[in-house]
Write a structure and sequence with these properties.
Elements lengths: L10 E2 L11 E3 L4 H22 L7 E5 L21 E3 L6 E5 L11 H19 L10 H20 L7 H6 L27 H21 L4 H9 L8 H12 L3 H7 L4
Parallel strand pairs: 2-3, 3-5
Antiparallel strand pairs: 1-2, 4-5
Helix pairs in contact: 1-2, 2-3, 3-5, 6-7
């Protein structure tokens, strides 16, 4: 538990939780939201446990009031650079941190979109709890597509969503899918990287590309793609190049997938 965060001002849900042992903290007046978050996490954890054949990792859930956001437990300042849900190992057990108010840059935060954010971080919790080794040096998209895929699959499965969730943002950023003369979009799933001067908006564009990619994958392939990918990806090695990750993904998808992936202008 972080010693800087004012846990003493927060309320704890009294009932024992259905999934992994955890405490749920929330600010006064937010019990309804806290119970909704727990319900979403419980249902999603059951689905992920079945898909990945892994138990739900132990965690705390912390709903944070806007005035306390800068004090939220975190390992990296990037985690609190924008108010959105995130998973952190800064506490023991780790915590799923959820802001009461999400940053405006993420558009209209409907219940469906907030659930999508929660599922994304829960998927990260499951994958980080997996004891299999990770490649040491990998392209950013190698891990990121897995999280978007799992989160969008959960929104389709649990919340009745179709296609993408962030429809308002896709309407706002339609130009990011317009290909250039080389046939690819200005930013691609495989071409994006994170640098110290990367802006929040630039990363948001990348997140939208990943969400579209996840939607395309789910429209053409089954959820079991993810555990098949992990079987070949989660092995001990120093470096995994982008073309090698693409080959692993194509192998996990099945015959013809390599050409299909290359046909995606944003991939």
């Amino acid at each position: 538990m972080s010693t800087d965060f004012p846990y003493e001002r927060y309320i704890t849900l009294a009932e024992p939780q259905a999934q992994a042992r955890r405490a749920v903290y929330y600010p006064a007046g937010e019990e309804e939201l806290a119970r909704w978050v727990v319900q979403k996490i419980d249902r999603a954890a059951q689905e992920l446990s079945r898909l990945l054949e892994r138990p739900c990792p132990e965690m705390d859930i912390l709903l944070v009031a806007p005035a306390d956001w800068e004090l939220a437990p975190h390992e990296d300042p990037e985690e609190i650079s924008a108010s959105q849900p995130y998973w952190t190992d800064a506490t023991s057990p780790p915590s799923l941190v959820v802001p009461v108010e999400v940053e405006a840059i993420f558009g209209e935060v409907t219940q469906e979109k907030l659930a999508f954010f929660l599922y994304h971080e829960l998927a990260l919790a499951f994958l980080e709890d997996d004891p299999r080794p990770w490649p040491e040096d990998i392209p950013l998209w190698a891990d990121e597509w897995q999280l978007k895929f799992a989160a969008l699959w959960l929104t389709h499965t649990l919340d009745g969503q179709q296609d993408v969730v962030s429809k308002d943002l896709f309407e706002q950023y339609t130009d990011i899918f317009e290909p250039e003369p080389d046939g690819k979009t200005p930013v691609t799933v495989r071409g994006f990287d994170w640098f110290e001067d990367t802006t929040l908006e630039e990363y948001l564009v990348y997140e939208l590309l990943l969400e579209r990619f996840a939607a395309e994958l789910l429209a053409h392939y089954e959820p079991a793609t993810l555990p098949r990918f992990l079987k070949h990806y989660r092995v001990e090695r120093d470096t995994l190049l982008s073309d090698e990750v693409t080959a692993i993904l194509a192998r996990s998808l099945g015959p013809g997938a390599a050409n299909w992936l290359e046909s995606l202008v944003y991939f």
